[in-house]
Amino acid sequence: MATSDDIIEHAADFLRRISPEGRAAARRRRERRAAAFRRIAKRVVLACVAILAVAIAIGFVTPIGAMGVFAAVLAMMLASIAIILWSQTPEPTPERMAGVDLKLLPAQTGEWLEKQRPALPSPAQRQLDYLAQNLDAIAPQLATLDPRQPEAMEVRRLIGDELPELVRGYQKVPVALRRQPLNGGPSPDKQLLEGLGTIGEEIARMNARLADGDLKALATQQRFLEIKYKGDGEMGEN
């Protein structure tokens, strides 16, 4: 029989799903799956076209016959299977995320968090939606960031180490104890919620700092161009 806590949990989960953040998270998941399918489909089509082109070229030189057609079809099937198997990326884990390229870290962290979603309380799932938005926002910044810079190391530590450690630490707590205050402090549920919120805010701050650096660089470049070209023009007129 469902308890009042279970009913509240299901209601909160429903509200999360229909919220703008929940719908945005679902849309991002669909977009990622669709993008992965398009990449695989493109590779399969290119491979089949290449095999067909080779078969046609051979046919101009010498008839390939039924066996040649069968061999070409078989080659297409084998190539398609190989491409599909080769395109399957390993499921992200904290251990794998620790060594992944910085530009891939937000996407892999987001994918790993989605796998953990069912094991987390509804309030924490709402925080995951907020985190997913911040990870998507910072991803373009990380794609051009030198991984040796202090900012890159800070992002990697926060996203690839501290965030998974927080979630896995919560998952180790027995389910029966997660809602209970421990030693006079907040419950594990509340600790998880506050920790996710803190990490989400820190990612947003990091993104703002990186963007501020880009804006300053752009302003410096624009000022340089003004001095170089507009200044030269004014000197020539004088």
Give a concise summary.
This protein is mainly α. The chain has helices at residues 4-18, 20-61, 65-87, 94-97, 105-116, 122-143, 150-171, 188-237.
Mean pLDDT: 81
* Helix and strand pattern: HHHHHHHH
Shape: flat
Strand content: under 5%
Please work out how many helical segments DSSP would assign.
Answer: 8
DSSP summary, beta strand count:
0
Radius of gyration: 26 Å
Oligomeric state, counting identical vs distinct chains:
single chain
List the uncertain runs.
Answer: none
Q: Which structural category do the helix and sheet elements fall into?
A: mainly alpha
End-to-end separation in angstroms reads: 89 Å
Largest sheet: none
Helix content: over 70%
How many separate domains make up the residues?
Answer: 2
Keywords: Membrane, Transmembrane, Transmembrane helix
Transmembrane segments: 40-61, 67-87
Q: Would you kindly provide a written description of the structure presented here, covering whatever features stand out?
A:
This protein is mainly α and 238 residues long. It has two domains: 30-88; 94-238. The chain has helices at residues 4-18, 20-61, 65-87, 94-97, 105-116, 122-143, 150-171, 188-237. Helix 1 (4-18) packs parallel to helix 6, helix 5 (105-116) packs parallel to helix 7 and helix 6 runs parallel beside helix 8. The longest helix has 50 residues, at 188-237. The mean pLDDT is 81. Keywords: Membrane, Transmembrane, Transmembrane helix. The chain crosses the membrane at residues 40-61, 67-87.
